[in-house]
TrEMBL record:
InterPro entries: ArnT-like_N (IPR003342), LipidA_mod_glycosyltrf_83 (IPR050297). This is Glycosyl transferase. The keyword Membrane applies. GO terms for molecular function: transferase activity. Its main location: membrane.
Length: 540
């Protein structure tokens, strides 16, 4: 049986993913501090002609490997420096992932209907749609994980070293994308092969070849790592050779979040399919065949490791969503009933969300919705009510038809969410403040930043000079008193008054405001600025 994906059968997840990406590109800003930080690193690599060592605020940036930054610069090489095409970088890899999950499903179960359902589920899961349209590492990392898992399945069937070599290249690509964390998703599948492969087929040679694939991955990384270590300086060399492994693992245990923290996010990460009735009906009929065992190993292994680490972020689980789509598709295939409105729970979900939002807009919310436009929220809520009602009436012929109906509803759902959040998202648009910073730099001002600067203004403003980070009020005061032309960026409370004669620029920003103070404003507001720290956001 051919295992080449038939793209014409994948048009629905392709359409949903592309439509979501287009909406994000046209309507939403790049969100600080993560998206703007990574775009600024790529921008400074271009400005400083430093394509081996990533740069942030004119200094080597050791927190992430360079692959995403290379891809951004490749985009600019092809299309010129722009913002409009950047969100299509994660989209391309997301579409590849849909094809790969289709292929993996065929490798495991040789069932094209099941494979197509897995691809549709993946391409219409809300969390996966979101991360497929933002500038972060997780969808690109998922690509390498899927390549490696597919290669390991081939290795189990063919008994050759070639697939292990491919898995090694994928491990190297994953490390170049986000570091050694890629092994958390891949190694459980390789190490527990004795469970999902037939008894007696996993010999010591399997583990020897797994070790060789790790060496291949390391060799791929060394192609970049050696010149980076030689050219980045001693501090950067220590950071990438030591900080990316031992120190970051130690920090993971230092950032306290409870063991159960990820469980509360599972419904969010798997919506809307967590409400799909055939999934739950089929779970009761699942048998532990080899494919199901592999998928469970993949999911449970990654989930347990990340739960044991104290440093937790929701998006760490994004590369596990493809595995969950396989498990869901397999469960749905065990529930081949007809003539049932299996989409009703999801229709009710849309109705409840719409009704809740509509009700909130007519109640006294205090400051809960002060950053939203109530008219936009009511349009979105009304649309959700209509969407839920429309989804309630059809009577699909079988579970696969119900599945496609639910998937088709996710694109209008995303569009309505974007409509409802349009005004709110404007509080994350930093084009204006970035332009103000650029203007001051061009006029000869030295721009200071109170607290940690995450590089968020460099690409948005096309800055070519660094911002000077200063922490304490005394340090800022001394600098302002000894330099004639200075400006200071702080983030005071939204209700703090900002006299026009004391600031070059101010705008609402997230739950606060961002202010670019002049010399008078710096001295007058320094005590108030003491609590106005930079938006806290660590490396993820």
């Amino acid at each position: 049986m051919s295992q080449t994906p038939k793209v014409e059968g994948l048009w629905l997840p392709f359409l949903i993913l592309a439509g979501t990406c287009l909406l994000f590109s046209l309507v939403l800003p790049f969100f600080p501090v993560d998206e703007t930080r990574y775009l600024s690193v790529a921008w400074e690599m271009k400005v400083h002609d430093s394509f081996i060592v990533p740069i942030q605020n004119a200094l080597p940036y050791s927190h992430k490997p360079p692959l995403l930054f290379w891809l951004i610069n490749l985009d600019w090489l092809l299309f010129g420096v722009n913002e409009g095409t950047l969100r299509f970088i994660p989209l391309i890899f997301s579409l590849f992932n849909v094809c790969l999950i289709y292929r993996i499903a065929l490798q495991l179960w040789e069932d094209r209907k099941l494979a197509l359902n897995a691809a549709v589920i993946l391409g219409s899961t809300f969390a996966y749609l979101l991360w497929s349209s933002i500038i972060m590492f997780d969808v690109l990392l998922s690509f390498w994980v899927l390549i490696a898992v597919s290669a390991l399945i081939r290795a189990g069937k063919e008994g050759r070293f070639g697939p292990f070599a491919l898995a090694g290249v994928a491990i190297g690509g994953g490390i170049l994308t986000k570091g050694p964390v890629v092994l958390v998703y891949i190694l459980p599948v390789a190490l527990f092969a004795f469970w999902w492969r037939p008894r007696g087929e996993v010999t010591p040679r399997w583990y020897a070849w797994t070790f060789l694939s790790l060496l291949i991955g390391i060799a791929v990384v060394l192609v970049w790592l050696i010149p980076a270590a030689l050219t980045g300086g001693e501090v950067y060399r220590k950071a990438i050779l030591w900080g990316q492994t031992v120190n970051r693992m130690a920090n993971s245990f230092a950032h306290k979040r409870p063991l159960w923290w990820y469980f509360q996010w599972v419904p969010v990460l798997l919506a809307p399919w967590i409400f799909f009735a055939p999934f739950w009906r089929g779970c009761r009929r699942l048998t532990l065949d080899a494919g199901t065992k592999l998928v469970l190993t993949w999911i449970v292994g990654g989930f347990v490791v990340f739960s044991l680490l104290s440093g937790k972020q929701v998006h760490y689980l994004i590369p596990l969503i493809p595995a969950c789509s396989l498990l869901m598709a397999k469960a749905v295939s065990c529930c081949e009933e007809s003539g049932r409105r299996f989409q009703l729970p999801i229709a009710v979900f849309y109705l409840l969300v719409g009704a809740a939002i509509m009700t909130l807009t007519f109640l006294k919310q205090g400051r809960a919705l002060h950053s939203f436009d109530l008219g936009e929220l009511r349009i979105a809520a009304g649309g959700l009510l209509l969407l839920g009602a429309a989804l309630s009436f059809p009577k699909p012929r079988d579970t696969s038809a119900a599945l496609k109906l639910v998937a088709a509803s996710t694109l209008p759902f995303v569009a309505l969410v974007v409509v409802g959040c349009h005004t709110f998202s404007g509080r994350y648009d930093i084009h204006a403040v970035s332009a103000a910073v650029l203007k001051k730099q061009q006029e000869g001002y030295q721009v200071l930043h109170q607290g940690k600067y995450h590089g968020q203004y460099h690409f948005m403003g096309r800055l070519q000079q660094p911002l000077l980070e200063l922490e304490g009020s005394d340090e800022i005061r001394r600098h302002a008193q000894t330099h004639e032309k200075v400006a200071l960026v702080t983030y005071p409370r939204e209700d703090q008054a900002v006299p026009p004669e004391e600031a070059f620029f101010r705008q609402p920003f997230r739950s606060k405001q961002v202010v670019l103070w002049n010399s008078r404003g710096i001295l007058q507001n320094l005590e108030g600025a003491k609590a106005a720290a930079s938006p806290a956001q660590g490396e993820q």
